[in-house]
Amino acid sequence: MSDSRRAIVLAVGGGIAAYKSAIVCSRLVQCGHEVRVVMTRSALKFVGVSTFSALSGRRVATETFDPEQNPLGAHIELAEGCDLMIVAPATANLMSRFALGSADDLVSTLYLQISSPVLLAPAMSESMWGKPAVQRNVNRLREDGCHFIGPSSGWLSCRASGEGRMSEPNEILEAAEALFN
Ligand SMILES: Cc1cc2nc3c(=O)[nH]c(=O)nc-3n(C[C@H](O)[C@H](O)[C@H](O)COP(=O)(O)O)c2cc1C
Fold first, then answer.
1. How many structural domains is the chain composed of?
2. What pTM was computed for the model?
3. Which domain holds residue 24?
4. Sheet holding 34-39, edge to edge
5. What is the mean pLDDT of residues 96-102?
Protein backbone atom coordinates (compact mmCIF):
# COMPACT_ATOMS: atom_id res chain seq x y z
CA MET A 1 0.00 0.00 0.00
CA SER A 2 1.45 3.41 -0.97
CA ASP A 3 1.87 6.22 1.57
CA SER A 4 -1.40 7.90 0.60
CA ARG A 5 -3.47 4.70 0.26
CA ARG A 6 -5.14 3.80 3.55
CA ALA A 7 -7.15 0.87 4.81
CA ILE A 8 -10.41 2.28 6.16
CA VAL A 9 -13.22 0.49 7.97
CA LEU A 10 -16.54 2.17 7.18
CA ALA A 11 -19.11 1.10 9.77
CA VAL A 12 -22.68 1.90 8.79
CA GLY A 13 -25.32 2.22 11.52
CA GLY A 14 -29.09 1.98 11.24
CA GLY A 15 -30.25 5.48 10.45
CA ILE A 16 -31.76 7.20 7.44
CA ALA A 17 -28.40 8.86 6.74
CA ALA A 18 -26.98 5.45 5.79
CA TYR A 19 -27.67 6.36 2.15
CA LYS A 20 -25.16 9.21 2.45
CA SER A 21 -22.54 6.72 3.60
CA ALA A 22 -22.66 5.12 0.16
CA ILE A 23 -21.28 8.41 -1.18
CA VAL A 24 -18.61 8.43 1.54
CA CYS A 25 -17.65 4.90 0.47
CA SER A 26 -17.48 5.82 -3.20
CA ARG A 27 -15.40 8.97 -2.57
CA LEU A 28 -12.93 7.10 -0.36
CA VAL A 29 -12.48 4.47 -3.08
CA GLN A 30 -12.00 7.21 -5.69
CA CYS A 31 -9.27 8.67 -3.45
CA GLY A 32 -7.49 5.34 -3.77
CA HIS A 33 -8.27 3.97 -0.30
CA GLU A 34 -9.17 0.38 0.54
CA VAL A 35 -12.63 0.48 2.13
CA ARG A 36 -13.84 -2.36 4.34
CA VAL A 37 -17.57 -1.89 4.90
CA VAL A 38 -19.29 -3.27 7.99
CA MET A 39 -23.03 -2.83 8.51
CA THR A 40 -25.25 -3.32 11.54
CA ARG A 41 -28.38 -5.40 11.13
CA SER A 42 -30.44 -2.22 11.45
CA ALA A 43 -28.39 -0.56 8.70
CA LEU A 44 -29.52 -3.34 6.36
CA LYS A 45 -33.09 -2.05 6.76
CA PHE A 46 -32.01 1.21 5.14
CA VAL A 47 -29.39 0.32 2.49
CA GLY A 48 -28.51 -2.99 0.85
CA VAL A 49 -25.24 -4.89 1.00
CA SER A 50 -25.00 -4.83 -2.81
CA THR A 51 -24.62 -1.05 -2.89
CA PHE A 52 -21.62 -1.12 -0.60
CA SER A 53 -20.02 -4.27 -2.03
CA ALA A 54 -20.21 -2.79 -5.53
CA LEU A 55 -18.87 0.59 -4.43
CA SER A 56 -16.06 -0.82 -2.28
CA GLY A 57 -15.25 -3.77 -4.54
CA ARG A 58 -15.17 -5.97 -1.44
CA ARG A 59 -17.44 -8.26 0.49
CA VAL A 60 -19.50 -6.43 3.12
CA ALA A 61 -19.34 -7.84 6.65
CA THR A 62 -22.46 -7.93 8.81
CA GLU A 63 -22.10 -10.88 11.17
CA THR A 64 -19.72 -11.68 14.02
CA PHE A 65 -19.94 -15.38 13.25
CA ASP A 66 -19.33 -15.69 9.53
CA PRO A 67 -17.97 -18.97 8.14
CA GLU A 68 -16.70 -17.17 5.01
CA GLN A 69 -14.52 -14.78 7.00
CA ASN A 70 -11.26 -15.45 8.76
CA PRO A 71 -11.72 -18.36 11.23
CA LEU A 72 -10.19 -16.14 13.93
CA GLY A 73 -13.23 -13.87 13.58
CA ALA A 74 -14.32 -11.16 11.17
CA HIS A 75 -13.43 -8.48 13.75
CA ILE A 76 -9.81 -9.67 13.80
CA GLU A 77 -9.51 -9.71 10.02
CA LEU A 78 -11.18 -6.33 9.56
CA ALA A 79 -9.09 -4.60 12.23
CA GLU A 80 -5.81 -5.93 10.87
CA GLY A 81 -3.76 -3.09 9.32
CA CYS A 82 -6.67 -0.67 9.56
CA ASP A 83 -5.65 3.03 9.48
CA LEU A 84 -9.01 4.56 10.38
CA MET A 85 -12.50 3.49 11.43
CA ILE A 86 -15.30 5.78 10.26
CA VAL A 87 -18.75 5.26 11.78
CA ALA A 88 -21.42 6.89 9.65
CA PRO A 89 -24.13 7.23 10.60
CA ALA A 90 -23.17 6.83 14.25
CA THR A 91 -26.55 6.05 15.80
CA ALA A 92 -27.47 6.78 19.41
CA ASN A 93 -27.51 3.03 19.94
CA LEU A 94 -24.02 2.43 18.50
CA MET A 95 -22.53 5.26 20.56
CA SER A 96 -24.16 3.87 23.68
CA ARG A 97 -22.67 0.42 23.02
CA PHE A 98 -19.23 1.89 22.24
CA ALA A 99 -19.32 4.01 25.41
CA LEU A 100 -20.29 0.99 27.47
CA GLY A 101 -17.74 -1.33 25.91
CA SER A 102 -20.37 -3.76 24.62
CA ALA A 103 -19.41 -6.33 22.04
CA ASP A 104 -22.79 -7.71 21.07
CA ASP A 105 -22.52 -7.40 17.29
CA LEU A 106 -19.78 -7.13 14.68
CA VAL A 107 -19.51 -3.33 14.66
CA SER A 108 -19.22 -2.99 18.45
CA THR A 109 -16.80 -5.92 18.66
CA LEU A 110 -14.70 -4.38 15.90
CA TYR A 111 -14.70 -1.03 17.73
CA LEU A 112 -13.11 -2.75 20.72
CA GLN A 113 -10.64 -4.68 18.58
CA ILE A 114 -9.40 -1.83 16.42
CA SER A 115 -6.35 0.22 17.40
CA SER A 116 -6.65 2.93 14.73
CA PRO A 117 -8.29 6.34 15.30
CA VAL A 118 -12.10 6.29 15.21
CA LEU A 119 -14.13 9.04 13.53
CA LEU A 120 -17.83 9.22 14.40
CA ALA A 121 -20.45 11.04 12.29
CA PRO A 122 -23.58 11.08 14.47
CA ALA A 123 -27.04 11.39 12.93
CA MET A 124 -30.37 11.43 14.71
CA SER A 125 -33.36 13.61 15.51
CA GLU A 126 -32.79 16.78 17.50
CA SER A 127 -34.65 15.27 20.47
CA MET A 128 -32.40 12.21 20.52
CA TRP A 129 -29.23 14.28 20.09
CA GLY A 130 -30.25 16.56 22.98
CA LYS A 131 -30.94 13.75 25.46
CA PRO A 132 -28.56 13.77 28.46
CA ALA A 133 -27.85 10.07 27.97
CA VAL A 134 -26.71 10.62 24.38
CA GLN A 135 -24.57 13.63 25.35
CA ARG A 136 -23.06 11.64 28.22
CA ASN A 137 -22.06 8.93 25.75
CA VAL A 138 -20.62 11.49 23.32
CA ASN A 139 -18.53 13.03 26.11
CA ARG A 140 -17.39 9.62 27.27
CA LEU A 141 -16.33 8.69 23.72
CA ARG A 142 -14.44 11.98 23.35
CA GLU A 143 -12.63 11.17 26.59
CA ASP A 144 -11.90 7.72 25.19
CA GLY A 145 -10.15 9.37 22.23
CA CYS A 146 -12.84 9.20 19.54
CA HIS A 147 -13.04 12.00 16.97
CA PHE A 148 -16.34 13.56 15.92
CA ILE A 149 -17.58 15.29 12.80
CA GLY A 150 -21.01 16.93 13.19
CA PRO A 151 -23.83 16.61 13.51
CA SER A 152 -24.89 19.82 11.82
CA SER A 153 -28.15 21.72 11.86
CA GLY A 154 -30.51 21.41 8.94
CA TRP A 155 -33.34 19.42 7.49
CA LEU A 156 -33.96 16.14 9.32
CA SER A 157 -35.85 13.12 8.03
CA CYS A 158 -38.45 13.61 10.80
CA ARG A 159 -39.60 16.58 8.69
CA ALA A 160 -38.22 19.29 10.91
CA SER A 161 -35.10 21.42 10.94
CA GLY A 162 -32.73 21.09 13.85
CA GLU A 163 -29.44 19.73 15.11
CA GLY A 164 -28.74 16.08 14.36
CA ARG A 165 -28.18 16.01 10.62
CA MET A 166 -25.21 13.88 9.59
CA SER A 167 -22.31 15.85 8.13
CA GLU A 168 -22.08 15.82 4.36
CA PRO A 169 -19.81 13.21 2.71
CA ASN A 170 -17.18 15.82 1.72
CA GLU A 171 -16.99 17.04 5.34
CA ILE A 172 -16.51 13.47 6.56
CA LEU A 173 -13.78 12.95 3.98
CA GLU A 174 -12.03 16.17 5.00
CA ALA A 175 -12.15 15.11 8.66
CA ALA A 176 -10.70 11.72 7.72
CA GLU A 177 -7.89 13.28 5.69
CA ALA A 178 -7.13 15.67 8.57
CA LEU A 179 -6.64 12.66 10.85
CA PHE A 180 -4.21 11.09 8.35
CA ASN A 181 -2.20 14.30 8.27
C1 LIG B 1 -37.17 5.13 9.99
C2 LIG B 1 -36.17 5.09 11.11
C3 LIG B 1 -35.16 6.00 11.14
C4 LIG B 1 -34.20 5.99 12.17
N5 LIG B 1 -33.21 6.91 12.16
C6 LIG B 1 -32.31 6.92 13.17
C7 LIG B 1 -31.28 7.89 13.18
O8 LIG B 1 -31.14 8.73 12.30
N9 LIG B 1 -30.40 7.87 14.21
C10 LIG B 1 -30.49 6.97 15.22
O11 LIG B 1 -29.68 7.03 16.14
N12 LIG B 1 -31.46 6.02 15.22
C13 LIG B 1 -32.36 5.98 14.22
N14 LIG B 1 -33.34 5.03 14.21
C15 LIG B 1 -33.39 4.02 15.29
C16 LIG B 1 -32.32 2.95 15.04
O17 LIG B 1 -32.54 2.32 13.78
C18 LIG B 1 -32.39 1.92 16.17
O19 LIG B 1 -32.01 2.55 17.38
C20 LIG B 1 -31.48 0.75 15.89
O21 LIG B 1 -31.56 -0.14 17.01
C22 LIG B 1 -30.04 1.15 15.66
O23 LIG B 1 -29.25 -0.01 15.53
P24 LIG B 1 -27.69 0.07 15.24
O25 LIG B 1 -27.13 1.11 16.13
O26 LIG B 1 -27.20 -1.29 15.59
O27 LIG B 1 -27.51 0.36 13.80
C28 LIG B 1 -34.28 5.02 13.19
C29 LIG B 1 -35.32 4.07 13.13
C30 LIG B 1 -36.25 4.11 12.12
C31 LIG B 1 -37.33 3.08 12.09
1. 1
2. 0.96
3. 7-180
4. 34-39, 7-12, 84-90, 118-122, 147-148
5. 98
